[in-house]
Amino acid sequence: MSQNVYQFIDLQRVDPPKKSLNIRKIEFVEIYEGFSASQSQAQADRCLACGNPYCEWRCPVHNYIPNWLKLVNEGKILEAVELSHQTNSLPEVCGRVCPQDRLCEGSCTLNAEFGAVTIGNIERYITDEAFKMGWKPNLSNVEKTGLRVAIIGAGPAGLACADVLVRNGITPVVFDRHPEIGGLLTFGIPAFKLDKEVLINRRRIFTEMGVEFRLNTEVGKTVQLADLINEFDAVFVGAGTYQSMRAGLENEDANGVYDALPFLIANTKHIMQHQQTEDTPYIDMKNKRVVVLGGGDTAMDCVRTSIRQGATEVTCAYRRDEANMPGSKREVKNAKEEGVQFQFNVQPLSIEVNNSGQVTGVKMVRTELGEPDAKGRRSPVIVEGSEFVLPADAVVMAFGFKPHAMPWLAEHGVDFDDRGRIIAPEIKGYQTTNAKIFAGGDAVRGSDLVVTAISEGRKAAEGILDYLEV
Ligand code: FAD
Ligand code: SF4
């Protein structure tokens, strides 16, 4: 590291360059170019190596951040990538999609006054570079136990669980109903945030490590859980949360009203040239006025997807003000740059339709922020007489997700809480009420983040190792 302790003043925080707006408005390609070697080394050198690394504590997988920043600064990429994989199964993904402003970078000692170290981009850089150099995990010293674990769901939770198990001599066999691994990483998060090749490459790496994948295979339909329980030594469930939330608006089932996730899944399948399915037909926003209801990351993904599909006008309508939006500030900024319009402090009242039942707009009412609630969050209060109609040819509901029903699990003694989440406490190693079945990720904690799903998948793998006495 630099001898100059004030290097964070001399060298400001720099974010990687973005592609030109002309490209960003029409193409489904990652908008960030990534750091060069010299940029990464210089930005890593801004780390103070403060004695108490808050970044490390705030990171849900507790990455050894200052240590790999030092290795990057010294140009030791192969050492950095090994260290990075000790705590994270998909560091190149987290580096791209974690809301760093709320996690590691938000806790960086330099954040308030000088600009946080660009931790996420450097994490991404380490693995991207190592792969370019031909690096892959070395499992030659791992002794095979002969044990096999079935993993239901190839999302970040399932993949992280498989990663830890295979490194401990257990053969994970991962089942997923989709044609590619990644779960929401592939079929939810759009390619402008996370290139689809990243997960295709990971499938190759995991396969070479000894993980088996059975894709296009739905548990409860194509294969039965009873057979997996008989055939395997344990089962891990990382099935996510797939029930879209609705607002209960009049006419919300009208033609032209869509749920966010089927819209995003179908768009990604279209780009990846996978076959459309009945439940996710391709939805084309070309030449349409699109209104997206909601203010989280999913809403940002929908507005930016609509722009790229060629919508004439795209508006995000959110019931609080900009400062209270739950989505990442970075993504709101990106959406604005790409031409998305925002209506803040508005609440939908009903969907307006024509005589053929086709959506024509959303009836809205303006809101203002009231007194803070018990959690300190100010709730929106309706402004009387402020109704107006926002014209729309298509409306996307992006109000979030809750757990979907999984009767095939309940039949085997797995209990759910009153919100439909699988009961699998951390203190019990993420074991469910069926001792042979473990679970983690969104299906257990409710919709959350990639990095928390990875954390739970890894911890559940430790629980499985204890259960199997490995
Ligand atoms: P999932 O990723 O949902 O994976 C579950 C997998 O299980 C799926 O592949 C599914 O096909 C499979 N499956 C389910 N049931 C079965 C069955 N019966 N048989 C076989 N397979 C089955 N988080 C971030 O950190 N950053 C972001 O920028 C971000 N953006 C997001 C954007 C969108 C649009 C959405 C919806 C979410 C976003 N998230 C983001 C949240 C994040 O993607 C999830 O928290 C995370 O993917 C959860 O991981 P998981 O493994 O628990 O579930
Ligand atoms: Fe930050 Fe996420 Fe990486 Fe942790 S995993 S260091 S929170 S980007």
3D architecture notes:
- Pfam families: Fer4_20 (PF14691), Pyr_redox_2 (PF07992).
- Its EC number is 1.4.1.13.
- Pathway: Amino-acid biosynthesis; L-glutamate biosynthesis via GLT pathway; L-glutamate from 2-oxoglutarate and L-glutamine (NADP(+) route): step 1/1; Nitrogen metabolism; Energy metabolism; nitrogen metabolism.
- Keywords: 4Fe-4S, Amino-acid biosynthesis, Glutamate biosynthesis, Iron, Iron-sulfur, Metal-binding, NADP, Oxidoreductase.
- Residues 148-457 form the FAD/NAD(P)-binding domain.
- The protein has helices at residues 7-10, 21-24, 37-44, 54-58, 65-73, 77-85, 91-97, 111-114, 119-132, 156-166, 184-187, 196-209, 225-231, 260-271, 297-309, 329-337, 407-410, 442-445, 450-467, and strands at 148-152, 171-175, 212-214, 234-237, 243-244, 257-259, 289-293, 313-317, 341-343, 346-353, 359-372, 378-382, 388-391, 394-397, 401-402, 437-439.
- It is an alpha/beta fold and 470 residues long.
- It folds into 3 domains: 7-132, Fumarate Reductase Iron-sulfur Protein, Chain B, domain 2 (Orthogonal Bundle); 148-241 and 403-467, FAD/NAD(P)-binding domain, CATH 3.50.50; 244-400, FAD/NAD(P)-binding domain (3-Layer(bba) Sandwich).
- It has a 5-stranded parallel sheet with strand order 3-2-1-4-16, covered by helices on one side. It has a 5-stranded parallel sheet with strand order 6-14-7-8-9. Strands 10, 11, 12 and 13 form a 4-stranded antiparallel sheet that branches.
- α5 (65-73) crosses α9, α6 (77-85) packs across α9 and α14 (260-271) packs across α15.
- The longest helix is centred in the last third of the chain and has 18 residues, at 450-467.
- The chain is globular, with a radius of gyration of 23 Å.
- The two termini are 40 Å apart.
- The model has no long low-confidence stretch (mean pLDDT 94).
- The structure holds flavin-adenine dinucleotide (FAD) and iron/sulfur cluster (SF4).
- Flavin-adenine dinucleotide is lined by residues 97-98, 152-158, 175-178, 183-185, 188-189, 193, 218-220, 238-240, 261, 264, 297-298, 301, 441-443, 447-451, 453.
